[in-house]
Design a protein that fits this description.
Elements: H1 3-13, H2 27-36, E1 43-47, H3 54-61, E2 65-70, H4 73-83, E3 90-94, E4 106-112, H5 121-134, E5 135-146, E6 153-154, E7 157-158, H6 164-171, E8 175-186, E9 192-202
Parallel strand pairs: 1-2, 1-4, 2-3, 4-5
Antiparallel strand pairs: 5-9, 6-7, 8-9
Helix pairs in contact: 1-4
């Protein structure tokens, strides 16, 4: 499957409110971010952000250094159109989360429902290495994936489920688990999806 073409086609044929992952207010992510107490000039990247409304809320909170990455150029164009002039305050990257390149070092790496689409060991390992290399020591990783009782597919694509334990294992030994929780998300169609949400700190090495 051509992953980019698949997601471009989805974003070209569905409205925002039709997506199963739609959240008017991404409360779990926002609560985790607020608890970190990050300065407003912190470098934040939202992996697989698409046309999620998280960036809108971060801008409303006053964050000044936000990057949104998504494999779908169509998704990014939709988000930019929605934000209007505010889109110029955001850095936009069209890339696959498993192999994108950057020179930036981030204070916070956020990923809700992108990582679980990586099902092959090489791409999973590449993603983990990219996160390790581009989150500053002492920086933070917020990760949300389908749980072991959640869906096994999304938008016709197989995903990999994670428990708090298995997600923590993926990011050790470079990340320390701060907390994990199970979160129920109700889709616009009324179905329930169970997520594993974890917050990690990038370990500072001597």
């Amino acid at each position: 499957m051509n992953r980019k073409a698949h997601w471009d086609q989805i974003y070209q044929t569905k409205n925002l409110h039709e997506f199963s992952w739609y959240q008017a207010v991404p409360l779990t992510s926002l609560n985790y971010i607020r608890q970190l107490g990050l300065p407003l000039d912190s470098k934040i990247i939202d992996i697989g952000g698409g046309d999620s409304l998280l960036v809108d809320h971060l801008l409303d909170l006053g964050y000044q250094n936000i990057t949104v990455l998504d494999i779908s150029e169509s998704a990014i164009e939709r988000a930019q159109k929605r934000l209007g002039e505010r889109a110029t305050k955001v850095t936009w990257i069209t890339a696959d989360a498993s192999d994108f390149q950057t020179d930036e070092i981030y204070d916070l790496w956020h990923d809700r429902a992108a990582f679980h689409f990586l099902t092959e060991e090489p791409e999973i390992n590449a993603y983990v290495e990219t996160a390790r290399s581009h989150i500053r020591p002492g920086g933070f990783l917020i990760m949300g994936t389908f749980s072991e009782t959640g869906p096994t597919k999304c938008s016709g694509v197989d995903i990999r489920q994670y428990s708090a334990w298995s997600l923590t294992q993926r990011f050790q030994p470079d990340f320390e688990k701060l907390e994990c929780q199970q979160v129920n998300h109700t889709t616009p169609s009324g179905r329930n999806q169970n997520f594993t949400f974890c917050r990690f700190r990038r370990i500072e090495t001597a």
